[in-house]
Amino acid sequence: MSSVTQITYFKTSETYSSQLVSDLVNKGSDKIDGLLKAYLGFETEDPSNAFWVLEWTSKSAHETYHQSDAFKATQAAARQIFANKPTHTFVGFPSTTEIFSAPVTEFVTFTLKDGVTIDKLQPLVKKLQSELPGTPKFYGSSWAPVIDKPNVVHGVLGWESVKAHWDAVGSGPLKEIIDEVKEIADIWLVHAILAGHNS
Q: What is the pTM of this model?
């Protein structure tokens, strides 16, 4: 089985605090079987939105944990943290080395427009991947279709800063590729500053 990244994105409640999150994580995670790494952080564009990024050995490891007493014990505390129903996205990224630990992580999705097939998008994603290395203040990227949503490709990219990202795509080959993507897919993207958390 391949490893899988779970990206949980949610609006935080007024009671959200680092201490509450620590308590929540510690309550259920003496050692969670199958959890490789965990990252927590806030969106830079709207800091009331948060990300929990969990890297699992497999989707079944996540599902097993989700049925455990340890998971159930965390739910009352979790409800205090979420101001809305969180979105959970599962992606089989080939590698996320250095991306989630970069100073800023870009989260981006390309959702195919009606009538467009994935074979039109894949070459553009490959072009992006080939053009990005060597970009100033770039830490790496990883791209894959969202599990159970074959019309959505998710990317995660590490940057020195949000400004470094916008400087890189403001003109030139990267902007040209992104303009091509916009013709066939809707783009959603935000940035977050993540911190690793011991699992």
A: 0.91
